[in-house]
Design goal:
Layout lengths: L2 H5 L23 H6 L9 H12 L4 H8 L3 H10 L10 H11 L5 H8 L3 H12 L6 H9 L3 H10 L12
Helix pairs in contact: 3-4, 4-5, 5-8, 6-7, 6-8
């Protein structure tokens, strides 16, 4: 096949079609309305779940998020996990592997618990995380709320200002 055969049928145009960017924006509804669809599967009421997500998005710990929502820290951690928020578990990946070994009957509970080095509460939360998948579609629902706003970025930049270099430092 020659180059002329490959180029056959090609034409040059002076205009390009603008197809735009396809977007789906579900943020017009407030977080309460978006979480209402998951209310039956969450361990707390929708209002409390909204408070937990908003506090966590603002940088509060799971315990502080729970306090603001008026729920137990375990409830807040379970809620965040079910909504697809990562990093809620207090155990390392090795700790989770031990929990999975216990759940699959490869280790006794006491062995898994001892080897994990976790407290009873931490072990219970890790067990919940291993036995409950995040709810379908929940991560996308809270994704916009979990994105830190510009205000949080400015505060972080201000706190770390002395550790950052400036363009003039490169010259």
């Amino acid at each position: 096949m020659a180059l002329s055969d490959i180029a056959a049928g090609l034409e040059v145009t002076a205009k390009q079609k603008n197809h735009g960017i396809a977007t789906v924006d579900d943020t017009e509804r407030d977080l309460h309305d978006r979480l209402a669809a998951f209310s039956d599967a969450l361990p707390c009421e929708t209002e409390m779940a909204v408070c937990i997500v908003e506090a966590h998005a603002a940088g509060a710990s799971v315990g502080e998020s729970a306090r603001r929502a008026g729920v137990a820290p375990m409830t807040a951690a379970k809620t965040l996990h079910l909504l697809g928020v990562n990093g809620v578990s207090p155990l390392s990946s090795m700790g989770h592997e031990l929990v999975r070994d216990w759940l699959s009957a490869n280790l006794s509970r006491s062995e898994a618990f001892t080897l994990s080095g976790a407290s009873e509460t931490e072990f219970a939360l890790a067990t919940f995380i291993e036995t409950h998948e995040p709810l379908d579609g929940a991560a996308e629902t809270v994704e916009g709320a979990l994105a830190f706003d510009g205000h949080a970025s400015v505060e972080k930049r201000d706190v770390l200002a002395e550790t950052m270099s400036d363009v003039g430092d490169l010259l």
